[in-house]
Design brief:
Length: 471
């Protein structure tokens, strides 16, 4: 029998064993079978990676945008060719279903294509007119070494969302993926090297948050951080960044509302609600898992959602929860919350009982103050609340500590747009309006700050310099 392959760090364009000589175990959440061990990174590994990035950053930043763009296009090509392997690595540690894997793999490529394109046209600064005696202009310059810390829910996708704009704008990066789901990010770094990214421009150090992640955030060579993950860890990293006076982007949680008015296309609204619960088994920070429905159609909508949800097949339509800790947390919350119209616990028989699958769950007419109505569950769980009119709908929509996204479904587009402008959230989709790579993404309130995606992300990864010469 051959030993399981071990995933080493990727530093300075090659594999690097962990300085401490220790490895972390991983798990296939669909079966609970053990997965490939990954390097347990510690401060010396982070030191090596930051040093490599520091050496590489000047040369990378000195390339023209067109030069960096062509490397990013080649990375996108390499990812496209390698999609089966990227999907397999992602499946082995997340248990995601094929359609979800494909969606995420395609979107990951799109980040590189998009920023390869826009970096040639955007962010080049401007001339400020001050009369004949001066020449004054601005430049968008990279920070230098950027630390990117990503979670386990959409591993490759979250990495690419930050890496593509950070690299496009001329930064070097040290990425620290989640210790549960590191393989796809390591593979990406290897592909990027093969595609011509200079050694040291993208490094990946794996390991736990408290060891590898904290060392990266605290490293004096790291000039900016991008973090996607929990509110608790976001707060810790914000404190570290405050101590070091460096900026950071925080993409945190959500408890996003989906508003359905009686005049909406109910088929489409019901499908959107079911998808919020099923897509990635609800482990999406932007999942719209608070279903607010106008009283006159509330029970009908809930009945239709429940019927659709009961048809969802574990392992086919939705995957397991990705970590054991998350599985236990969700089951604990469900066990303490009576009143589910469907679901409410684990699978007790069949293949799904072997994995970390949670039965899709709907709680109708919850108390707006209840834990289940207020906390982000990060599992296949919807709550519903009825509303009488537009004013109450808006109050309920904003009655949350979070503000990541919202969805409004109404046959009255003016009402949809009116509400969208008053909902405290970073992005609002009216009647299924598309939110894509082109559209800026980020939170209001406890959902974080800073923006990823779109042209907005270019500003996150560059700092503005003004140069003025007296002529
Ligand atoms: P979850 O609790 O859902 O696992 P986290 O916010 O803890 O989410 O994890 C997101 C990312 O943050 C992971 O890569 C994790 O290793 C990292 N992380 C966790 N704790 C810390 C920390 N104290 N410092 C830096 N990174 C951390």
């Amino acid at each position: 029998m051959t030993a399981a392959p071990r995933h080493q760090h990727w530093i300075d364009g090659r594999d690097a064993p962990p300085a401490g000589g220790t490895w972390l175990t991983t798990l296939d959440p669909a079966t609970r079978a053990p997965g490939d061990p990954i390097a347990a990174g510690t401060a010396p590994d982070v030191d090596r990676a930051v040093a490599a990035a520091e050496r590489a950053r000047h040369g990378w930043a000195a390339l023209s945008p067109a030069g960096r763009s062509s490397v990013l296009h080649r990375i996108a090509d390499a990812m496209e060719e390698d999609t089966p392997t990227l999907m397999r690595l992602e499946r082995e540690c997340t248990g995601k279903v094929p359609a979800q894997l494909r969606l995420e793999a395609d979107l990951s490529v799109q980040y590189f294509r998009y920023y390869a394109g826009v970096v040639r046209a955007a962010g080049q600064g401007r001339v400020i007119e001050q009369g004949a005696g001066a020449h004054t202009y601005t430049r968008h310059e990279p920070y230098g070494v950027v630390g990117v810390i990503t979670p386990w829910n959409l591993p490759l996708n979250q990495a690419c969302r930050a890496l593509a704009p950070a690299l496009a704008t001329g930064n070097a990066v040290v990425a620290k993926p989640s210790e549960f789901t590191s393989a796809s990010t390591l593979r990406l770094a290897r592909l990027a090297s093969r595609a011509g990214l200079p050694d040291g421009v993208l490094n990946v150090v794996t390991g736990t948050g408290p060891q590898a992640g904290a060392a990266l955030a605290a490293h004096p060579g790291v000039r900016r951080l991008a973090f996607t993950g929990s509110v608790a860890t976001g707060r810790l990293l914000a404190a570290t960044a405050a101590g070091r006076l460096i900026p950071l982007t925080l993409e945190l949680g959500g408890k996003s509302p989906l508003l359905v008015f009686a005049d909406a296309d109910l088929d489409a609204a019901v499908a959107a609600a079911v998808s919020a619960l099923a897509a990635n088994a609800g482990q999406v920070c932007s999942a719209t898992t608070r279903l607010l429905v106008e009283e006159s159609v509330h029970d009908e909508v809930v009945r239709r959602v429940v019927t659709a949800v009961e048809r969802l097949r574990p392992g086919v339509d939705f995957g397991p929860l990705i970590t054991e800790a998350q599985y236990e947390k969700v089951l604990g919350l469900l066990a303490g919350t009576p009143g589910a119209a469907t679901g409410g616990g684990p699978y007790t028989e069949g293949p799904a009982a072997r994995g970390l699958y949670v039965r899709p769950t709907v709680y109708p007419r919850v108390d707006p103050g209840a834990r289940i109505a207020r906390e982000e569950v990060f599992g296949p769980v919807l709550v519903t609340l009825p509303f009488r009119d537009e004013a109450q709908a808006l109050r309920l929509a904003n009655d949350t500590d979070y503000g990541l996204v919202a969805a409004v479904w109404s046959g009255d587009l003016a009402r949809g747009l009116r509400l969208a402008e008053h909902i405290d959230a970073g992005q609002v989709a009216v009647n299924g309006g598309p939110l894509t790579v082109e559209t800026p993404f980020g939170g209001y309130k406890q959902s974080g700050h800073g923006r990823e995606k779109g042209l907005a992300a270019l500003h996150e990864y560059t700092q503005l310099k003004t140069i003025s010469a007296r002529l």
